[in-house]
Design a protein that fits this description.
The structure holds two protein chains of two kinds. Chain A has 14 helices and no strands. Chain A is an all-alpha fold. Chain A has two domains: 2-61; 62-273, MetI-like (MetI-like fold). Chain A is globular. Chain B is mainly α. In chain B, 74% of the residues lie in helices and 0% in strands. Chain B contains twelve helices and no strands. Chain B has helices spanning 2-35, 52-58, 63-93, 97-112, 115-125, 132-139, 156-180, 185-193, 198-227, 230-235, 247-256, 261-291. The longest helix of chain B has 34 residues, at 2-35. Classes of the chains: A mainly alpha, B mainly alpha. At the A-B interface, helix 1, helix 4, helix 5, helix 6 and helix 7 of A face helix 1, helix 3, helix 4, helix 5 and helix 7 of B.
Chain lengths: 279, 293
């Protein structure tokens, strides 16, 4: 009886902890969304309006028609897509090399992948800014794609080494005996077999680029070329704060990621956690 | 045939290696180089000044405060994330299957939201006077009418630490949930039958099995929190009165607002040394595993 009472209290406390946490997590999303569908005059009403009826899409109209947000979305999509393609190609090659061959420098190479993952961006950003300026490449997609690719390749390779190593060697050895060249083996045999790994890596790289702020706001000065996060953050300062459009922009900026999360939860979590976590 | 077989791994890793050397290795060295010269917009020349930039950084008067702010932001933040993540993980672990999957996917949400959007969300929630959190506090009998969450010099740092923990806690939750799966059920059962209290069971059984995952998660989240930039930059830009200026934020301001690249590089070298010290045991442990591969 005593233990039953104790577990009951324990269960109740656990339930309270979970419910409070859920409220603290879910309500801010709800509130941001609700703010984005309020009439401008209702945003500051006291007491606050919890259920705006009828809702209005005015703020979304303002963001989509009268602000550069759609352009920022396009910029980010181009940069993120190109980065993902490059990272997957380069990382798969390297992962295959590392897991199928024993060679001098293999361990130092693997260690450099690890060390690269903990480097603070502040130690890179000044030299890289000078580098891209010297190439006249500041204010273009190239500087962002190059920098993001380099930052993501260590994580990507590390992640894919795990997947490629898990494939039985016999598969590609058999293909090699049949006369298939390494590029053919990589693209026709290995890549399809590690597609879960490519998905996990691709998604986490995509999200990294999507949310990155420091590099994107430094390497791009022209408003039209800004990626989404750099653009949204200027929204905050230059416009004062108009909460309707700002929250609408926030909702639009996270919507693609939430959709990806809904459909690829497992792959996404795998990609985002097994970077440096698993040895 | 033989020779090309020997060259093959090098050809395969070449693009990755070039990218790493060109965009990570070279800048790292170059950054140390810049920290040794005077490089400011006001001057055309860039004379070698030895350790002068480091001396100026360390003796600047605000450096002590920056280090303290960074320590509070990092250590305080990681502790909040850990305790919160641990509590929620233990609570969810005790739940029945049905609910726990939904709870898990909801708890993970803040983690995938971009830092800039997280900032927008909480700036909206915590507006002074008109924010919904202030309203709820007033309704519950408190008085939040004149609370300036992000612009009061004493409150700003705890506020941004909370916002960052909100975003980072799910990672702890996820890692601890994974760790809890490895805790042997029979040991928990045995402890229960022996009449051990919940706390004693946690201390002597669960915690012992969680230790390795807590250690590696602590290392990673310490590095990530230390390097954190987006949330502070979006909400406070390091203000008010430097109250939230951590090393990365102060470094960025020095570099790209003040345009004193020499001094900013020196400060970032300080960051690099700190991150190096924090991550060294972890990288050494992982490299042992590498050798056994």
């Amino acid at each position: 009886m005593h233990t039953d009472g104790r577990t009951l209290v324990g269960r109740a406390l656990a339930l309270v902890a979970v419910l409070v946490t859920l409220a603290v997590i879910v309500f801010p999303f709800y509130w941001t969304f609700v703010t984005s569908i309020k009439e401008p005059a209702d945003v500051f009403r006291s007491p606050p309006i919890f259920f705006p009826i009828p809702p209005t899409l005015e703020s979304y109209g303002a963001v989509l028609r009268a602000s550069p947000i759609p352009r920022y979305l396009l910029n980010t999509t181009i940069v993120a897509g190109s980065t993902v393609a490059l990272v997957l190609t380069v990382s798969l090659m390297a992962a295959y090399g590392v897991s199928r061959h024993v060679f001098r420098g293999r361990i130092p190479f693997l260690l450099s992948l690890l060390a690269a993952q903990v480097m603070p961006v502040t130690t890179l950003i000044i030299p890289l800014y000078m580098f891209w300026s010297a190439l006249n490449a500041v204010d273009g997609y190239g500087a962002l794609i190059g920098t993001y690719t380099a930052i993501s390749v260590p994580v990507g390779t590390w992640l894919l080494v795990g997947f490629v190593s898990a494939l039985p060697r016999q598969i590609d050895e058999a293909a090699a005996i049949d006369g298939a060249s390494t590029p053919v083996i990589l693209t026709r045999i290995v890549a399809p077999l590690v597609s879960p790994g490519l998905l996990a890596t691709g998604l986490s790289v995509f999200i990294y680029v999507w949310q990155e702020l420091m590099i994107s706001m430094t390497f791009v000065r022209t408003d039209r070329l800004k990626p989404l996060m750099a653009g949204v953050s200027t929204f905050i300062t230059s416009r004062g704060i108009e909460w309707g459009p700002l929250t609408a922009a926030g909702v639009l900026a996270m919507a693609p990621i939430l959709v990806v999360y809904m459909f690829f939860r497992r792959a996404l979590i795998k990609g985002l956690t097994s970077g440096a976590v698993k040895g | 045939m033989h020779a090309s077989r020997k060259a093959e791994p090098y050809i395969l890793i070449l693009p990755a290696l070039l990218l790493i050397l060109l965009f990570l290795g070279f800048p790292l060295v170059e950054n140390v180089g810049i920290s040794l010269v005077r490089w400011q917009l006001a001057f055309r020349d860039r004379p070698f000044v030895g350790l002068h930039n480091y001396v100026r950084v360390v003796t600047s008067g605000t450096f002590g405060k920056t280090v303290l702010t960074t320590a509070v932001w990092t250590v305080g933040g990681v502790l909040v994330q850990m305790v919160w993540g641990l509590l929620v993980a233990l609570a969810v672990d005790g739940m029945r299957r049905r609910g726990s999957r939904l709870v898990q996917s909801l708890v993970l949400l803040p983690w995938i939201v971009p830092g800039v959007v997280t900032s927008v969300i909480w700036m909206c929630m915590l507006q002074s006077d008109l924010g919904v959190v202030g309203y709820l506090i007033n309704r519950l009998g408190g008085d939040a009418r004149h609370v300036l969450w992000f612009s009061d010099t004493r409150l700003a740092l705890p506020s941004v630490i909370f916002v960052n923990s909100w975003k980072a806690m799910p990672f702890w939750f996820l890692m601890i949930m994974a760790g809890l799966m490895d805790v042997p059920r029979d040991q928990l059962e045995a402890a229960r039958l022996d009449g051990a209290s919940a706390l004693a069971t946690f201390r002597h059984v669960t915690f012992q099995h969680l230790k390795p995952i807590l250690a590696s998660t602590a290392t990673l989240t310490t590095i990530w929190t230390f390097n954190g930039f987006d949330i502070i930059w979006t909400i406070t830009k390091g203000g008010p009165l430097d109250a939230t200026a951590t090393l990365p934020v102060a470094t960025y301001i020095l570099g790209f607002t003040v345009h004193d690249y020499g001094r900013a590089s020196a400060m970032s070298v300080v960051s690099m040394v700190i991150v190096g010290i924090v991550s060294a045991p972890y990288i050494v442990a992982l490299s042992r595993k590498l050798r056994s591969l």
